[in-house]
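Extended Data, record CHAT domain-containing protein
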Amino acid sequence: MKIPDFNKEFFCIANVDEPVLSAIVSSYVSKKGFYTPMFEFYSVTSADSNKSDSEIDEHHLTRSRARQFNIKIGNTIRRLRGCDNILLIGLTENQQSYLKFPKDYNVIEINDINDVTFVLGSMVDKSNILSCKESQIYEGLVQALSSDSILHIDFKADDIVPYLNNEGGIVVVENVDKVGVVIAINYGISISANVLITSSLKIDKRKISAFIEEWKDGNQNSYNDLSSFIYPKVEDVKFENYDFATFFTEGAPYSLILKNVIPISHVHLHLNPDFFIFNNLYFEDSQTPYSALVFSPLEFKDEETNFVIDELTKKGYYVKELVGENATSHNINYHVREYPFNLLHICSHGGEVDGYSVKHKFIDSNGDEHIIEYDEVVSFAPSRLEEKIPVTSKKIWKKFDGYKWRSEELKAIGYPQYVYTDMLNSTRNIDKKERKPKKNIPYSCAIKCSDFNYQAMFHHLASSHSPLIFNNTCWSWSDIADSFISVGSKGYIGTLWNINNNIAVKSAEVFYKNLFNSTILEAFNKSIKETTGSKDENIYIFWGLHFSSFKQVADVQMSKNTVVVKLLKSIEIWKEKLDKTTDKPMREEIERIIKWISNQLSKNFTEEIIDILGNGKS
């Protein structure tokens, strides 16, 4: 199959709330057979400042997110080795204050449709024009990109009738009215797939999980209810005519409802679909370091762990085994973030864990009293390398002043942002009397380690690589999947409910037997056939793209050497960051990371370091 190259003429950064403007820009800058990078920038509440990320105020959340976005954008441009033009589409002054580009880039601001015509009209060579109503902007973009036309909004234009040619692949995109929809369309057309726009989901992931749990407990009506939200969107599509389907969704498990009639993958529209697409395209040709992590506290009498290790080793991968007593929360926490790998297999218990329920009163800055209700899961990561024991606390918000968290009723109250900032600060010092032990906290999804639980709360992954995650634990499609997908994985395989161990073992073995002689999606499709006829039929879901694959390599030692080189490089990068930061909590964290990487090198790679340094001197 043909994988599109990047169109390096234009690099687009768009305000997430400007999908119409972004669609029109896309019609100008798109290039047949190429993927034009576009990234969506979420809103910010203030311009960038000198405040530390560890300082919590009313702007903390958006400030931290915007700074992370800037870092990822910088890394992405460097991976592209530059571009001709950077287009800032509908960005506010506050958003632009977070973007730190080198001065030698040609940065162009596009603030309205007139800018598009005036600026881009002279830069691109396109003469065909396709008119559509603004209400059909996405359908219009599909046809404009397909016909290499410029998109023009005209309220008198004829209605656009979507067309599917019933061959090749199909990309289905839920209309969430954000730039992510434009990005999905750009991708679909770049791979010459059919593109279908459907309505938004109208149901959140937690309700989907509740339907699935009730169905697996014996209530068939719950499956029917779930299907009624999803199937009508695609009931007219004859999926059996297509080679594959990719669903850009807010969280719907289309593969379950369609019973995996063809190879099906998903992309989450709210978990950085822009970087997700880019990472899959970029790392398809840049697959080093050819290393893998295999994690298992050996909880099961029969499991796939040894098979996976052997199979990956046969294919030339250097496998770091976090197995048995080494499967600690500290080990997986640091390895997931700082170790260079492109595949992680997890075999353990997963799902909901115990914690606390909290009902907490606080006074905001204006003197008003509020009540916040939430569940809390606490885990520990002790290590001989650190004097203090790192503690991770995950809060699952439930109610605020009696209103359901994130409900329309709560939004309608219109509390100022400082109220929520005061809430966060107040929850740092909770009275023990306010915390009540609670069993099996909903949506707490964690991974059981040999000592404590791991909650997968991190901001970067695999030392800035983009790995595949196979989380072969129960309920692993839930919140824990979001952590891996949103920070850079190129694929994630998880389970939709509690899986039988025998099914888990067989499915994993089939997957790894086929992984290196087909695409990830094809290997996944073969593995899920192992669930046919069982109570776990169609239990797995794959977040990824249809073309992504893994290459076999010849030499494990060469792969191991590559890991060492990347760890040495990582130390250099962290030391540079340490020299530039004055924030005390950040400095302490960087020092811990450098210490951990140094320990890994001295403990596991002494011979490789001597060899690499020796060759360097010669």
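Summary. DSSP finds 20 helices and 26 strands in the chain.
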